[in-house]
Structure formats: structure tokens, C-alpha cells
Amino acid sequence: DAQKEITYTYDVVWTESSQRWASRWDKYLKMTSSQIHWFSILNSLMIMLFLSGMVAIILLRTLYRDITKYNELATSEEAAEETGWKLVHGDVFRK
């Protein structure tokens, strides 16, 4: 296919207003009522708790697997081939 050129256009109509430029956002920024958005706060807290729980579950599952793997190595005849943090432990506490 050959490249086709598409021309986009738009139209703007400017109208003069009696409102000053510095105060144009005042009606949006003023809080006329002290209504608190409880639903939004509760929704944010629930999402935060859910995501924190998911991260905690993933971390706990990973730690559980690592600990069981290291415990199995300690009880088996392959304990001589230590890996991971056990090697660092040997280097740190060397006399």
C-alpha cells in the first residue's frame, strides 16, 4: 500500500470573559463542603492491604522453600557442597 496523507483540522472560538486570569480556577479549588471521600480512602486502604498481603505471601513461600532446601542439604550426604548463604556464613565467621 502507498502511504496516504491524512489532514487533521480543528476549530477554536475564543470568547472574552470578565473573570480575571488569576482567579479562573477558584471555583474548582474552593472546598465549599467538608465532605470526606470515605469510599476512596477505604478503597485505597483495601488495595494497599491486598497488595501487601500478596507480597508477604510470595516472600513467605520463597523463604519456606529456601529454608527447607537448606535443611535437606544439611541432613543429606551432599552437605559438603554448601551453596548460598552458608558459603557467606563460612567466610564471615572464619577465625
Explain this structure.
- The termini are far apart.
- The protein is elongated and about 85 Å long.
- The mean pLDDT is 82.
- It is built from three helices and no strands.
- The chain is mainly α and 95 residues long.
The portion of residues assigned to helices is 40-55%
Please state the average pLDDT score. 82
* Number of helices in the DSSP assignment: 3
* Basic shape: elongated
Beta-strand residue percentage? under 5%
- Rg calculated over all Cα atoms: 32 Å
Distance between the termini: 76 Å
Q: How many β-strands, per DSSP?
A: 0
Structural class by SSE content: mainly alpha
Q: Mind describing the biggest β-sheet?
A: none
**Topology as H/E string?**
HHH
As residue ranges, the low-confidence spans are none
Defining traits:
single chain, 95 residues, mainly alpha, elongated
Quick rundown:
The chain has helices spanning 26-29, 38-75, 85-92. The chain is mainly alpha-helical.
Chain-wise SSE layout:
Elements: H1 26-29, H2 38-75, H3 85-92
